[in-house]
Structures are given as C-alpha cells and as structure tokens.
Amino acid sequence: MKIGLEIHIQLPTRTKLFCSCSTTGDEVNSSVCPICLGFPGARPTLNRRALEMGVAIAKFLNCTIPEKVWFSRKTYFYPDLAKNYQITQYETPMGRNGHFMLGDRKIGIWEAHIEEDPGRIKRAGRAGEEVALVDYNRSGVPLVEIVTAPDLTSPEEARAFLSDLLVELRHLVGLSPQDETTVRADGNISVGEERVEIKNINGLRNIERALKFEAKRQSKLLAAGKRIVRETRRFDEELGTTLPSREKEFEEDYGYIGEPDLGTFVIGPLASDLDLPETPLARASRLEREHGLAAASARQMVLTSWKLADTFEVLASRFGRETATTWSLGPLASHWKELQERLGDRLEESIVPIIAEVHAGTITDSEARMRIDVLAGREAAPVASTAPTADDLGQIVARLVDSHPEVVKDYRTNPRAANFLIGQVMKETQGRYASQEVSGMIRKELEKRV
Amino acid sequence: MSGEIGSVAVPEEVLADLSDDMREAFEGAIDRLEGMGVEVQRVSMPSLRFALSAYYILATAEASTNMARYCGMRYGDIVEDTDLGFNEMFSNVRSRDLGAETKRRILLGTFCRMVGLRDRYYIKALQVRRLVIRQYEERFREADAVLTPTMPFVAPRFDEIEGMSALEEYLADTLTVPPNLAGLPHISLPCAYIEGMPAGMQLVAPHWKEGRLLSLAERWENVFQYRRPEGRT
C-alpha cells in the first residue's frame, strides 16, 4: 500500500499572510480588510514572520531551499475565494526534496510552501431554504502545505507520521495543540496500481479513518477482480465512508502565473543563518542515545513536558542516568502538572536537593517520594496560618514524637525508624523545612527520650 | 536626479515599422539633437520586435486574473437565479456585464496560461521580457538613453480609431510597450508636427536616472517650438 499526503497546517502568526488583519476574529467577518476581501486595486504585502516560519519548516524537513522565492496566482472560481485566485507558491516552494524521520523510516517530502487560506462557507437556514454564507475571517490566514512522497505504507503509519510531524512543528514554530483537529490533508492512496485521491479531510482521526476505509474499499474491489478507477473522492465524517467527489473529473487547470503584486524574496541567507532549535522527537532520540533511555520512555518524557526533560538532563548530569531515569519517569512525571503549577520557576531548585539526598542515601526512597508528593500538593496537610518559625517546627516535632512511643522504642535498636517521623513532619509542614533541619531536630527529640 | 544626456542609442529595428511621415519627422528630430551636440548611435535591439507580443501575453494573463473577482459574488451584480450552480451563475454575470475589450483580454490571457499552452506563451513571454531588459542594459553601457519615436504612426483621430481593428490598436503601442515591460523610466516629447498633429519622440533611461530625461526635456524646449494641438474651440 502506498500513501502520500498533502498536509495543510495554519501557521501561528498574529496577522494574516498579506495584510494586518488579526488571524483570530471572534465574530463572523470581523477580521477583514480591503486586501483579504480582494477589493479591486488592493495590494498584498508579505508577512515576514510567515516567511520565516515557512523557511524554518522547509529547513527542518531537510529540504533544498532556493535562493529566491516568489508567489503565484492559482486561479479557480469558488464562492469562498474573494479574488477567485489564491496566492500560493508554485514554481518556487520554500523547499523541495526533503525528508522526515518517522522512527527509523525516512519519509520523503516533495515540497513545502506557504499560501493563503480562502474564506469559509457556512450553511444556514432550514432544509430546502438553505443558504450558503461566507465568513472571510479565515481569508488570507497563512498556511503551510507539506507534500509527502507516497512513502507511507498504512493508514496507521500515516497517522503516526502526522502526529509526529505536528509534535515537531508545534515546538518549531509554535503551533497550538488544537492542530490535531484542525490539520487538513488530501490523501493519495493506492492498494494496487491506480491511485485515488481523498480531498480535504479534517483532523488526525478522520485522516486515518478515511484512509482505512479507502484501503479496505480498494482491497475488496481487487479481491472481487475489479479495477480501481483513478478518481477524486471525499470523506463523509458521519458515514465514515469515502464517496466519489461531486467535482468534475478532469484535471483542474489553475492557469498559474507569477503574482505581479509581490516581488521576489531572497531567502537563501535567512535559511542558512537560521539555527533550528532541537525539536521534541529529536531530543527524545538524543536522550535515548546519550542516556540509554527506552525509546518509548524518552518520548513520553519529552512529550510530558519540555521542562521535565530539562530536569532529567540536570539530574542525569549530577546523579547519573539511573537515578535520573527512576525519578524523572516515576514521581516527577506522574505529578508533573501539579509540580509545575505550584512551583513554577522554582521547580528545579526544589526537586534537585531531594534527589541529591536520596542519591546520597540520607533519606529513603519513600521519603523522597513523599516529599515530592507534598510539593505537588498531594495529601495536603493543614497549612499554618502564620509564617513558620523554628519554634513551630520544634512544637510539631515534639508533638509527633510524643504521639508515637513505638517509634521511640524502635529507635533504640534501629536509628532508621526516625525516618517515619521525618516523613510525617515533612508531610505536615509541606516541605517548608529543609530535611536536614527536620531530621536533626527529630533525632535530638528522640535522643532525649531514649 | 541630475545628469545630462550626451548620447542616445537609436534601435534600427523600430525604424522599419514606421509610417513614412513619422520616419521623416523622427529623422528630423535626430538631426536637431545632433545639432545640440548629442551623439546618436545607430544600434540593434532585436528583442524590441517581440516586446509587443510579450507584453500583450503578460498583460492579458495578469488582467484575466485581476478580472476574476468580478463574478457577482463580491463584485458585480447578482440578478441571476441564485438556484444556479456558482459556476454557471458566475459565467452569466461575467458574460452579461463585462465589455468586449475586457472579454477579449480575459480570453487571450486565460488561453496563454492554460496547461499545455503556458510554456509556449506565458513562460516564453517572460523570457522575452528578460531579453528586453538585458538589451536595454547593454545599450546603457554605451549610451545615456535609448531614443525612438513614441508611436509608429501619427496619433489617429477618434473617427479613425473607429475603423481600426483591435490588432491595429495594439500596434500603436509597439514603441511605448518595451520600456513599460522593462520597468524603465521614460519620457515622451513632441518632436514634429505632421499636418497639424504632434509627433512624439521617446527617451528611455536606466533605473533612477529620471533626471537625465528631465534635463534633456528642458534643453529640448529651448530649441523646439511647441504648438498647441489642433482642436475645436
């Protein structure tokens, strides 16, 4: 089975591709101007940020990037297209002949280019009296189109590819996580000889569903000794099936010409000077390589949070891979959200000392775990209404020691019994006191009673 | 903006297509320029002969897309039955409301950019444009400006225009099109009167050298007596 995708993803710019309208309009037709409404005589101006994002994506996809690019008019008549042509890149995409690594598999990228989105048609009114309305808020919103080679071998792989690509692009140019549902793709799929194109599928899930349905449909046809016709189909989300597209069956002729209202853009230096940041999956495979993490663990860690991976790298450099792995994938990963919310920028400085102690053997695993729990706000203890002082700690310790005579008894033969009390105090004080201080005071208190 | 024109290049190719009276008027202007001390170089710029064709292909290709928006959707009037499919509705609006010359240019321009014809017309025209630009650049190495008549024949009266074909009308632009195609500054100055009608000469300068054109125009006004064009009062 061969699958190739043409993927459209919105670039997260503040303003549109060729005008200063905001890319986020609350009300219908509220974010529009003469340019994105295609007024006669209105002239486009290229959004520099969108150009930069396009270059970054092309470079990230290992494409050959031309020295100069220009734009083209792709002419077709459609009610949502204000000018009846779309400004896109035809002769000079941002990049060509790249690839993307899906695990160990090299997926070819034929090209990546940027273009403007048309408006949106919305249907309203009762059945039979339905009217089509156009919302131009989306008109002129920048998109990147990525075209893959037919290197994907199953619908599942196509989805995995898209999912990985989005993870990387999210970090690279700042896509929002909603892109999993707003990503649009055309899928070309052939089980036998002839390929079928499924146009305009929305969202990761539907892309996989459409490809799965189409793969099955084609296989059944072949099994029945029938031929597959080359055609364009569409995906019906409700029915979960692909249907022949109502559009005409001849190859559309877009009559491309260069966009005379925009000049040429020299992107060679921009591309070569651009330092791409390390992307999540690239980082995961580096962690896998450098620290011997299992592939799935490395991926999980990086996807949980970029900062968790940062913390892991700090821990690994200070306490070695084993300690770093145990604590990062365990207690830290499972409470990550709360830890981030409660500690913010102080997260690393709060966590590292705990791991340092457990690594040095001065506290037990379970105490460290508990202290992390406390930092994460789990099993919240009553919070002191006034700022704690050493006296408060003394009182808490004295009370706890008094109420646990069995610990005092154990302590005579086993000094490690004190750990239980240390844990209790840490829990009650929510980690407000350094553990050395707590354990020192507890030992002092216990010694008094021994 | 300063600079003087000490030399002009006159492309021989354009002289062949001039009307007799225009050629005579233009040669007279050349003599006068030489009298002013301007060196006149007789040169060859073969690409100029193809500039008009290239221009009409590029201009109509662009115009045909510019005009696409007047389909009744946002621009133009919808009076058609809205139950029609949009393709049919757009076609009806365009057929009804656009004028003959507009339609002619849309058809020509759309034809030139169709798959299978695009390389032969649109892309070829872009190549001709590059060639025109390059030949101007070559001339500017030897001369300060390129000199031609402004039109190949005397400006027609309105009653004469009515009898002209579209092609004849387009041919009137043969000499003004090349500098437009190349995006170069140019100026037209009256240089003779033929049966009371003004005949013009056109000077084309390199980018950012408009000053040369203006200062030559000033010098020209000192040696050439402008007349009011003939007209009814």
CATH class of chain B: Alpha Beta
Low-pLDDT ranges of chain A: 380-387
Mean pLDDT of chain B: 91
- From the spread of the alpha carbons, the general shape of chain B counts as elongated
Pick out the low-confidence regions of chain B.
Answer: none
CATH topology of chain B: Amidase signature (AS) enzymes
Element-level helix/strand string of chain B: EHHEHHHHEHHHEEH
Question: What does this 3D model show about the protein?
Answer:
The complex is a heterodimer of chains A (450) and B (233). Residues 380-387 of chain A have low confidence and may be disordered. In chain A, helix 7 packs across helix 8 (306-319) and helix 8 runs parallel beside helix 11. Helices cover 43% and strands 19% of the residues of chain A. By secondary structure, chain A is α+β, with helices and mostly antiparallel strands. In chain A, a hairpin with a 5-residue loop joins strand 10 (184-190) and strand 11. Chain A is built from 16 helices and 15 strands. The model of chain B has no long low-confidence stretch (mean pLDDT 91). Chain B has a five-stranded mixed β-sheet with strand order 2-1-3-5-4. Chain B has helices at residues 12-16, 20-35, 48-66, 86-97, 100-112, 119-142, 158-162, 166-171, 177-182, 210-223; strands at 7-11, 39-43, 145-149, 186-194, 197-204. Helix content of chain B is 52%, strand content 14%. In chain B, helix 3 packs across helix 5 and helix 3 packs across helix 6 (119-142). With 233 residues, chain B is α/β, with parallel strands linked by helices. Chains A and B meet through strand 14 of A and helix 3 and helix 4 of B.
